[in-house]
Amino acid sequence: MRWLLIGLLAMLLLLQLRLWFGEGSLAQRAALNGQIADQRALNSQLATRNSDLASDVKSLKEDLAAIEQRARSELGLIKQGEHFFLLVEPEEPSGE
Questions:
Q1: Which end of the chain has a smaller Cβ tally under 10 Å, C or N?
Q2: Is the separation of the CB atoms in 26 and 20 below 8 Å?
Q3: What pTM does this model have?
Q4: For residues 43 and 21, what is the distance between their CA atoms, to the nearest angstrom?
Q5: CB 67, CB 61: distance < 8 Å
């Protein structure tokens, strides 16, 4: 009877060690939950970005004014009859 009690206590101790320190332990589970929360936050940011990009694509497909605005800002579109002025800031003299 005594050996049975010792065996059961040893088994309980081994199971407790695995619960606290082994693979699949509570600490490892907490770390994985933290990684899941971080990934969900990143996924949320990326979903918002994807939504914005989809909106831009839709407007570029359907709205000529959006295409013109994008061409003006990114490609430097100038229509015939318009004047282009480039203002250049003077360079600061170096402190040599």
A1: C
A2: yes
A3: 0.54
A4: 31
A5: no
Q: What distance in Å separates the CA atoms of residue 88 and residue 22, rounded to the nearest whole number?
A: 65
Digit-coded pLDDT (tens) for 35-55 = 999 999 999 999 999 999 999
Give the dihedral of Cα atoms 59, 64, 69, 75; nearest 10 deg. 100
Q: What letter represents residue 20's amino acid?
A: W
Tell me the CA distances in angstroms from 24 to 18, 28, 36, one per residue in order: 8, 6, 15
Annotate 28-69 with three-state secondary structure.
HHHHHHHHHHHHHHHHHHHHHHHHHHHHHHHHHHHCHHHHHH
